[in-house]
Specification:
The structure is a single chain. This protein has 332 residues and is of the alpha/beta class. The protein has two domains: 7-211, DHBP synthase (Alpha-Beta Complex); 244-327, 3-Layer(aba) Sandwich (Rossmann fold). Helices cover 28% and strands 17% of the residues. The chain has helices at residues 16-27, 49-59, 74-80, 85-94, 130-139, 159-166, 204-211, 284-299, 317-328; strands spanning 9-11, 32-34, 41-45, 68-70, 99-104, 121-125, 143-144, 172-174, 186-190, 194-198, 244-246, 256-260, 275-277, 305-308. The structure holds adenosine monophosphate and magnesium ion (MG). Residues 65-68, 102, 116, 119, 121-123, 146-147, 184, 187, 197, 231-234 line the site of adenosine monophosphate.
Length: 332
């Protein structure tokens, strides 16, 4: 194995020469962090088992936690997955975009077994980001791209976040500036029913309007027949800063930092309190874009706890509250 570089190289996106270099790196089995509209992804050749293994090692990700496969366009879908009518409808309407579909694999799907954690299903999406799409087209095949952070840590929304988690563990970082959406994709399983496996960057209501029916909740944590989790890797404690997180805060205790939302003030804030407001005007899209960066920023302020004001549950609020709940969950 080649020695790891001490510092990960950073590239600006865009020029054909850079794209050719990135495509070559992926073909060689290297790991390249790329901007997408949701969060920064850690890309590798989805057909290369060794490259996929390196992703799990770089992130410290458990092997049972499957990866999302990114493709260029709808035409590439049929090579790896068998979409039903609902899946085709959602893909046509929302791709490129922050929606991942979990589908049965094709019998000759050549994506590495490790990428799908040995399941007979595959999670797949087309990212809505010019740089990510340019790289996918230059590479010319499917790419796995989990969030470019250490497993269990807060997802990266800037190249600097990737650098701070993965420098020296990966080969290249492409800096495309801050991401637009800020939370990971919504994951929908398309089988006899359409199941919401993870709320994310596409609000549930948008999906339900297109389907003309409600998304089903996964039955508990596990599929009762197989005992396997329906969305493996969706652990209670995930997306977590190192500092403790206290939800639905109406006041700030001494020694706490505050993650605020909206114009309403809370009691207990003084000159010593570190405060960041997800969106002073109460805009949930703005709050999602700020969420992970602000959690990272407050994590290094030396507070013993981050107190978080309530965030409404509609629109992107469902994904924000899901990530906050995981950030606040007990870690063992
Ligand atoms: P991320 O960590 O954002 O890359 O998201 C990956 C997540 O997608 C996993 O942790 C699973 O919850 C989900 N996922 C990926 N592949 C599958 C699959 N075949 N079936 C169900 N969920 C999946
Ligand atoms: Mg992740």
């Amino acid at each position: 194995m080649q020695p790891k570089p001490a510092v990960t190289a950073r590239l600006s996106p865009g020029t054909p020469r850079h794209l050719a270099r990135l495509a070559r790196a992926l073909r060689r089995g290297e790991l390249v962090a790329v901007p997408t509209e949701t969060v920064y992804g850690l890309a590798a050749n989805a057909l290369d088992a060794r490259a996929c293994r390196k992703i799990f090692a770089a992130k410290g990700r458990p092997a049972r936690d499957p990866l999302i496969v990114h493709i260029r366009d709808l035409r590439e879908l049929a090579l790896v997955a068998q979409p039903n009518a609902a899946a085709r409808l959602l893909a046509k309407k929302f791709w490129p975009g922050p929606l991942t579909l979990v589908l049965p694999k094709t019998s000759d799907c050549n994506v590495a077994e490790l990428a799908t954690a040995g399941l007979d299903t595959i999670a797949i999406r087309v990212p809505a980001h010019r740089v990510a799409l340019d790289i996918l087209r230059a590479f010319g095949g499917p790419v796995v791209a989990p969030s470019a952070n250490l497993s269990g840590h807060v997802s990266p929304t800037t190249a600097a976040h990737v650098q701070s988690d993965l420098a020296g563990r990966i080969d290249l970082i492409v800096d495309g500036g801050p991401v637009a959406v800020g939370v990971e994709s919504t994951i929908v399983g398309c089988f006899d029913e359409a199941v919401l496996l993870r709320p994310g960057g596409l609000p549930r209501g948008d999906i339900e309007r297109v389907l003309g029916r409600k998304l089903v909740q996964p039955p508990g944590d596990a599929d009762s027949d197989s005992g396997r989790p329906l969305a493996p890797g969706m652990l209670a404690s995930h997306y977590a800063p190192r500092t403790l997180v206290r939800l639905d805060a109406c006041n700030v205790e001494p020694g706490e930092a505050l993650l605020a939302f909206g114009p309403v003030a809370v009691s207990g804030v003084d000159a010593a309190t570190s405060v960041l407001n997800l969106s002073a005007r109460g805009d949930l899209d703005e709050a999602a874009a700020n969420l992970f960066g602000y959690l990272r920023a407050l994590d290094v302020h030396g507070a013993h706890t981050i107190a978080v004001m309530p965030v409404p549950h509609h629109g992107l609020g469902e994904a924000i509250n899901d990530r906050l709940r995981r950030a606040a969950a007990r870690r063992d």
